[in-house]
Design goal:
Blueprint (H helix, E strand, L loop, with lengths): L9 H9 L20 H10 L1 H16 L2 H62 L2 H48 L1 H147 L3 H50 L11 H14 L29 H10 L27 H4 L8 H15 L7 E2 L2 E2 L5 E4 L3 E6 L5 E9 L7 E6 L7 E4 L11 E8 L7 E9 L2 E11 L4 E3 L3 E8 L4 E9 L5 E7 L3 E2 L16 H23 L5 H11 L8 E2 L10 E3 L4 E4 L3 E9 L5 E11 L7 E10 L3 E2 L4 E8 L4 E9 L5 E7 L7 E4 L2 E4 L4 E8 L5 H5 L3 E2 L4 E10 L6 E10 L3 E4 L2 E8 L4 E9 L5 E6 L5 E4 L4 E4 L4 E8 L6 E10 L4 E12 L3 E2 L3 E3 L3 E2 L4 E8 L14 E2 L10 E5 L7 E4 L2 E4 L4 E8 L5 H30 L5 H9 L8 H10 L5 H12 L4 E13 L14 E15 L3 E3 L7 E7 L5 E9 L5 E2 L1 E2 L8 E3 L5 E2 L4 E8 L6 E9 L4 E10 L4 E3 ...
Parallel strand pairs: 4-10, 12-21, 23-31, 33-40, 42-51, 43-51, 53-61, 63-70, 72-79
Antiparallel strand pairs: 1-2, 3-5, 5-8, 6-9, 7-8, 9-10, 11-13, 13-19, 14-18, 14-20, 15-16, 17-19, 20-21, 22-24, 24-28, 25-27, 25-30, 26-28, 29-30, 30-31, 32-34, 34-38, 35-37, 35-39, 36-38, 39-40, 40-45, 41-44, 44-49, 46-48, 46-50, 47-49, 50-51, 52-54, 54-59, 55-58, 56-60, 57-59, 60-61, 62-64, ...
Helix pairs in contact: 4-5, 6-7, 7-8, 15-18
Amino acid sequence: MEEPTAQFSDEELMDNFLAMDDERIQLEAPEFEVEPLPVGFEDATALGCSCLAKEEEGNTAKMKKTTIKDKVEAFHLRKSLNLLDKLHEEKDLFIQKTRGELRVCRQRMDLLNKQQESLAAEISAERDANNMAAMSRLQAASRRLHTELENEKDLQSKITAMLKDSENAMWHIEIQKGQFEDFRKRNEEEAEARQRSLEIHAAQQLQKEKETLERVERNRLLRARKSLHVQKELGQKHQKLVEDAQRNHRIAVKFLKASLGRIREREQEEEMESRKHMKRRMDAVLALKNSITASRETLKKFQAWGQSRAELAKQKALTEKEVILAQGGDAFKHLVHQRRHQELEAQKRAFEEEQKLRKQEIVSRILKEEAEEENRKKKQHPPSKATDGWTLRDKTWKYISDFCEGKTAMPASHLLENEIALHPKPTCLLKAISSESMQMDLGSISTEEEVLAEPDIPGLWSKEYKTHQVSKKDMEQKPVGGTKMDKDILARTMEQLRSGVVHKQVVSGREFKGRPFNSKPEVIHFKDFDIGKVYKKKITLINATYTINYCKLVGVEEGLKDFIHIDFDPPGPMSAGMSCEVLVTFKPMINKDLEGNVSFLAQTGSFSVPLKCSTKKCSLSLDKELIEFGSYVVGETTSRTITLTNVGGLGTRFKFLLDSEFFEMEEPQPIMKISSLYTCEDKSLYEKIITSLSEQQLDINESSPVDIPSRKESEKDETEIVPAASVITMAPSEEQAEITLGEVTEGEIGPFSSVKIPIIFTPVIPGEVQTKFKVMFKNSQCPTLYFRATGIAVDVPVWVPRATVDLKICMYDRLYQDSIIVHTRSKAALRLKFEVCKELRGHIELVPETGYIQAQSSYSVQLKFLPRHSLPEDAGKYFDENSRVLEAPMTIWVADQNKPVGFTVQAVVTTSDLEISPLEINFGYCTIYEAIRTEISLSNLSLLPQEFGFVGLPKYVDIQPNDGFGTILPLETLQLDVIFQPIKAKEYRFELICKSEINRCFKVSCQAVGVHPPLELSHYQIKFSATALCGTTVSRLYVINSHLSMNKLTHSLPRIGSEEATPVGPTSFEFLPPPNSPITISPSVGTVLPGKKCLVQVVFQPVLPHEVILKEAMQILNKEKENKLFQKETVQRKETWKPSMPVVRVHNRDRPTRASTPHTQELHRQELSVSSNEYQAAQANLARSFQGKFDRIVVPCVVASGDIKDRKELEPLSFSPHNTLYLELWCPAVAPSIVLTSNKGNSVLNFGDIAVGHRSIKKITFQNISPEDLALEFSVLSPSGPFVLINPSKKLCSGESQTLALSFSPRESTQVQEILDIITKRDTLSLTLTGTGVASMITCSIEGNILNMGYVLARESVSTTFKLQNESSLLIKFWMQLESLSRKRDETRQQLPKFLTSREQRTEIVGTQNHNGQSVFSVAPVEGLMYPGKAQEFTVTFSPDHESLYFSDLLHVVLFEKKVFHQILLKGAAREHMMFVEGGDPLDVPVESLTVIPALDTEHREARSPSPEAEEIKPILVTLNYVQFDTDTPIPPATRELQVGCIRTTQPSPRKTVEFSLDGVAWLQHKGFSIEPSRASVERGQTKTISISWVPPADFDPDHPLMVSTLLQLRGDGKETYKVIFVAQVVAGI
């Protein structure tokens, strides 16, 4: 065995300890961190624990004294101590193992000695026996034992030496541990102190928690007592409120009785008025009928007149044409000019008419504004009496009438009886004014306003009503004006309310939130209002806050100010629960629904009360849609009533009629169309007639019945034309209708009323009668209502209500029963006999067959129906095999009556079979980790629904839905899923049994093969969370190989069905995801060893399909090209525009089409790339309109035995299709909540090339497209990176956009990329930030970054040059800095000298320096500018002032004053003489000694130069390792080299060369050394190589290295002698 560490010296241990300095460690170790005290603990300490505070202050002061340097030193010592402990344990274990091996070696040596003794005895015995063969064999065995014994002795010596070295190292470790013993004890004491402080802290925390718990318990008891007190006070207040309410209730009942009596009297008066009103309306309808007749005659006259005018115009045109043709002119041209002239004249007249209409509109608006102004004045001042003079209104009407009629004289005016001035006698213009404006004018000049609002209880609003008096006892409970605190609160609140400031209300530590005042009622609703009337409503505002509050009226919305007036007297301060009243007055001026709010301002905030104003509307309905009269004998008459109800506030006219009749409810229709041959005068006259007709009809529809007689008179005088309401009825049937309407079929239905209409049934012919009716209304907004009436006419006293007994659908071999009721109208008892037709007597039975029915009563007979399978053959004509309908006639014979009573038994007979398809199912191969689903069809051949269920299913089979149970509808086919999941690997054969509700069985046979694959998955289904578009969701699973042994008794073995088991070994797998899927699986291929598992990562990243994006991009590209083409065509059209219309049409006809051909689309598709602007814009548009998507992906995983590494390059593994595993992935993709609106939706923000040290800022805008506000979080960018987020935010409201500013400031010359994630609760938006720093494009001509100046004579100098090439596009400023001249040089000199460390750990850069204080190396130029593409040359000068081999320095190339771009190590050596020797192993340190510096002048140097007899001999160590391998290949010799050189100098010297010679070359050759050359000369500036090789001689002992020495003499300007020591050894090769 080999020893890893033979000896640990003090120097090596120190090297290990100091190597820790290179590691980055924290200044404070975790053991020295002080946990911060909680806030509560600090408060408790500050209050009462002064002693503990003093102790903590003392401890804190001590901890502050511990400096960072002490902590770092302690950490290093602790780490060194742990390392010593670890080395001690390892060395102890190694010593124990070595001693065990030594013990075993000695035992083996004893055994070999014993065997040798026994062999010696046997050899002597055989020698005596003269058995030479046995003696030879025993001697050979003795030699073998001797050889083994020698080997064991050598091994024992080696193990002994190794054990001794290990024990020495162990002693050194023990000594070093003893040195750290004090630190160990101090560390344990500090740990104990920390533990004690933690215990003290825990005790103090426990004491604080106990005090807090006691305080909480006291507070809870106080709150409980307070709540009991408050409940008691509330109970007393509630009792007092109940007594007050009862007292007020008794007072209110008395007023209620009086008001109810007055209401009944008013209702009687209203009923009388309604009857009178109905009579007046009937008279108006009769007058309207007469006017309709007159208008029809007038229309006929106009039609005849129009036809005659057309014939005359035609004849006139023909005459003119003949005259022109006779004169030789162009008749067509003349007619065209004449027609155009007529059209121009018609347009001119139409324009004049339009101007007149506009003037009329302006005048009507002026009049309306004047009327409104008069209304406002009348509200402010009392109305004055009407004067007899002309008013402004009369003058205006006079001017309008004169202007329209072309008159100059003013017609006489007259007054109506209502003491207001009316307009002059109606003219055609006055007829053009709508009745709505007339009603507005009449209402606007009325002297009184009718107020409809009245109190529910009379007397409550009167001033004489006495308010409720508060008892003296209640008054004494609180001082007048309140307490002093109440007065202060009142004063402050009044001041805040006056200033309009809203404050929070906090009472007993609770802040009031919510509506400050509650309204009763909650909504102010004015229903069914009339224009011109005034409505009033009172609302009550109740203070719902905790204490005193105020209420101030703000007003109503702008659209309601003209109609709503609020009367509100601010009540001042209101205590909680108090109320005030608000009077709302509504004066409607327009017939329109209004909605708004009445706004108030309270101390705690504003609130509003909703306000609604609803116009009158019709809401009509019938109480029934079907009227059943039942059975009646022919000749009888009966009636039913149907009620028409109007729950709306607007009445209308109705008419009941048959569904086959047609009726139009007075809708204005155009009388006739104007012929194109009419002249302009005829057209204008016809338009005037149509306008007057429509407006007169509007007057009739909207006027009251009182105005109808006056209108009749005016119509007779002026003979105006009124449109007719046509009633078109179908021709009456020759047969008399059996179901008819009563006498009242039409009329008016008022608001909130109902009308009952009788429906009469008079049967004429036996049988069922059905009639449909409809109800039509004059109001076009009311839909037509329909209803129907049915009845049965019978002609015998005995009848069956059900002429057809429908048994619905019946199954074969099932019994069905029903009860048949027989009625009689006879006044005597009758004998009945029930008879079944002979064909169905085996299937139908009536029980009993004979019975007696009493007078005017009923009788019940039982029907039994048991259909058998022979029913189709037995029933014959009564059974339809196609529809499977049975219609069996039954007869009831009545005694003393020839005509029997018949009824029919009807049934649909069906089968009860269920059909399953297929009847055999083969599931194939299925693994035990998955389930196979197949569909079967279950068809119901019956016409009835049937319940079914699959029973007796094995454990590995499941049927869904509903576990195989359910109800199947008639003739329905259900698709059922049969799920098979094997539990072990074998062949399965089983049956599925389906039973119906009547216990019928249907079977399905199944077979399958169960497979146990050698691998399994930890998850077979992964449900990804909803992932936004372009987002990423990662899930992980394991592929497990649990097949460890072939013992089938302990576990089931992987196999396919009943085949042989899969052998134990590595198993490979491969996932095969579908192409173009958003799923990435890594690794997709791998090998799993037995008992191991492999981690697989599944990544879901939804993206838009490339083809969809290309299609959208093509549309954007085509639209841009179309816009460009359209603009180009527009410019060309403007340039080539001509007034001729045919030319323009030809141009449009010849315009090239814009539709792109498939070839151009393909070219555009090829032009589009992923980085194109159109592609990115299309991707952004699709992302914004993305509606979400759900994909279910199944990924197969094939399994094969063997390792992937063992297969050949193209040889695939033998994957078995039966061992395939399946991974199901649910992938829901949703629309992103935030999208980029800038940068064309591209999430990659490229800053481009930026110079190092410079800064670039870019902005990017994103928008929240989700319906909710989002809280934003941003991922942390690299603190040392160049990217910085300048303006992060925390919230983004729905629909808002926000702009982020990002800066890029590269610190180094490299391309940088980082990901900035904008994180919301819904998804994450990732921004890719990229940029490139371009400051490092500089190359140096020096290879290896080391510039060796070579050997130079002391006090001489040598120079060399190098170049820096600027290959970037930037102007770069540079600085050259030497490490020896840096500011940190003085700090490094204060540290421990480097020569005290080992050579491997010496990291000094600055070597030996000049004694005169000047720098050894210098460079020029020191600073400057490097232009793009140019090179800068630098000169380095080496000037040593004394002899040394270790001159070195580090040159820094600094760019942009910040970055150290390049470092060049400068090296050189100086000699006093011109010769030098290089090579050999180092024997000294590269640092000068601290001895006294010799004088630099020549005299002292010559005085100090030694004599030739005392010449110093310098040693050179050359180590040669001869590597010996076990193979038979030739072994190369061990070689080394020495360099002898001559320095080129400018000083005069007697010798131009350097000669060297080696002594004792022959003796060295005897030792195996070969040296070439042993003697030579070297020219100035040249070097000569001395090659040294060594091969072990024959007598070389490998256990003892060879050490020889010889002298090397150099002669130049002086003489130097070197002692070359050769150390050669043989090492074993690996």
